[in-house]
């Protein structure tokens, strides 16, 4: 392990600390060294001894060799679907988990063709430039590009993955952050990370639509911590989510005016959108005045409370499929073996399972195979359609694609 010790990458160690939500002091206690020693490791001023290095990798639940790899290019600074009080350490954890997801997708991209990125292009450089009309137009164009029509979207997660978005859904134990979105320069595609801590299919769909709004509207806007700027961008992503999930003309034509909670409960199951979100959409469309919206929210709170609504369990949470089915396809076709994937990545089997949406203990035995992604032949004569049509498997001779 001498080489591994000498080649310890401080950035890898910092990333692992963030992903595990550990402080330097906590890591020091677990490994059995002084906190100052961990600080020196993170600065590159000192390398651990052989036995300590092995213990360090064990505590972090990564392969020792992984700690010696140069860290990859980071994803873009993310937009957070979060409470303003979310801690910096919590945000760092989700960014680190997202970057682990990026590494997984990069490995798979050596073997498969992911769907092409298909998002409306906008070049806003300041949120103040974005009008409500711009948001409505972006939502309408996104529906058109994805060929979703004007009615309810049956499975938004599948639609997003079909448009080239890498989607990860994982339990985080961070209730203040419901998701984040960023762009991967290495993958040349966006990544959305959703929290799975709240098993509410309606809220999860809205969170996903919200992050899609960030990807489209705010791609070229520098992140900032100024509350006013943050709040404006959150409102814009909210508006996009409402416009995307509830198209103005179609949705408005189905709402009985004046509306009430019982009518909206019926529409909730049809559109896959909460009553609260529908009320906000009706207000945005001018179909609910300020006082009417306030009165309706008060009635909602009096009847159901401030968070839960009747029928919240009637819409199944939409799960990501792309990474999971890519793993299944690679294993089924013999491109990669079960034990190869975690070892190649350097992460624990459980990390790969949760980031890819695989069942627990998947890497301990064979799994049922469902095709989705398209394997890329080293002889690739042509590219095939992805996700918008049933996955078609091509020849696996040579497996890895050739360098371009």
TrEMBL record:
Q: Which GO terms describe its molecular function?
A: DNA binding
The residues covered by the HTH cro/C1-type domain are 13-67
Q: Which domain of life is it from?
A: Bacteria
Name the InterPro entries on file.
Cro/C1-type_HTH (IPR001387), IrrE_HExxH (IPR010359), Lambda_DNA-bd_dom_sf (IPR010982), Rad_response_metalloprotease (IPR052345)
- Pfam families given for it? HTH_3 (PF01381), Peptidase_M78 (PF06114)
Family membership, please give it.
Belongs to the short-chain fatty acyl-CoA assimilation regulator (ScfR) family.
PANTHER family, sorted: ANTITOXIN HIGA1, BLL7220 PROTEIN
- What's the name of the protein? Zn-dependent peptidase ImmA (M78 family)
Q: What organism is the protein native to?
A: Herminiimonas fonticola
């Amino acid at each position: 392990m001498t080489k591994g010790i000498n080649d310890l990458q401080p950035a890898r160690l910092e990333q692992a600390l963030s992903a595990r939500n550990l402080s330097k002091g906590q890591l020091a206690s677990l490994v059995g060294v002084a906190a100052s020693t961990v600080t020196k490791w993170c600065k590159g001023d000192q390398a651990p001894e052989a036995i300590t290095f092995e213990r360090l990798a064990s505590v972090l639940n990564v392969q020792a060799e992984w700690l010696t790899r140069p860290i990859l290019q980071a994803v873009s600074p993310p937009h957070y679907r979060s409470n303003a009080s979310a801690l910096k350490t919590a945000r760092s954890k989700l960014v680190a988990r997202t970057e682990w997801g990026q590494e997984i997708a990069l490995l798979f991209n050596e073997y498969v063709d992911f769907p092409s990125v298909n998002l409306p292009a906008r070049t806003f450089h300041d949120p103040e430039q974005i009008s409500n009309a711009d948001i409505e137009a972006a939502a309408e164009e996104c529906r058109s590009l994805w060929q979703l029509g004007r009615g309810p979207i049956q499975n938004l997660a599948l639609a997003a993955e079909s448009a080239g978005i890498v989607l990860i859904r994982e339990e985080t134990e961070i209730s203040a952050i419901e998701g984040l979105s960023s762009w991967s320069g290495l993958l040349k595609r966006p990544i959305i990370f959703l929290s799975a801590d709240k098993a509410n299919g309606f809220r999860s769909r809205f969170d996903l639509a919200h992050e899609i709004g960030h990807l489209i509207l705010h791609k070229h806007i520098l992140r900032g911590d100024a509350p006013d700027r943050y709040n404006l961008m959150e409102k814009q992503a909210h508006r996009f989510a409402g416009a995307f999930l509830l198209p103005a003309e179609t949705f408005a034509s189905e709402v009985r005016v004046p509306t009430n909670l019982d009518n909206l409960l019926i529409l909730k199951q049809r559109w896959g959108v909460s009553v609260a979100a529908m009320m906000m959409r009706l207000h945005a469309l001018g179909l609910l005045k300020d006082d009417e919206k306030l009165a309706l929210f008060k009635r909602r709170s009096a009847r159901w409370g401030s968070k839960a609504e009747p029928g919240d369990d009637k819409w199944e949470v939409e799960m990501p499929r792309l990474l999971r089915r890519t793993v299944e396809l690679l294993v089924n076709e013999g491109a990669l073996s079960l034990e190869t994937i975690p070892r190649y990545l350097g992460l624990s089997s459980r990390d790969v399972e949760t980031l890819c949406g695989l069942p627990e203990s998947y890497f301990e035995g064979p799994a049922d195979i469902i095709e989705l992604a398209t394997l890329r032949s080293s002889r690739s004569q042509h590219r095939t359609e992805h996700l918008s049509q049933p996955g078609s498997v091509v020849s696996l001779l040579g497996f890895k694609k050739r360098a371009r």
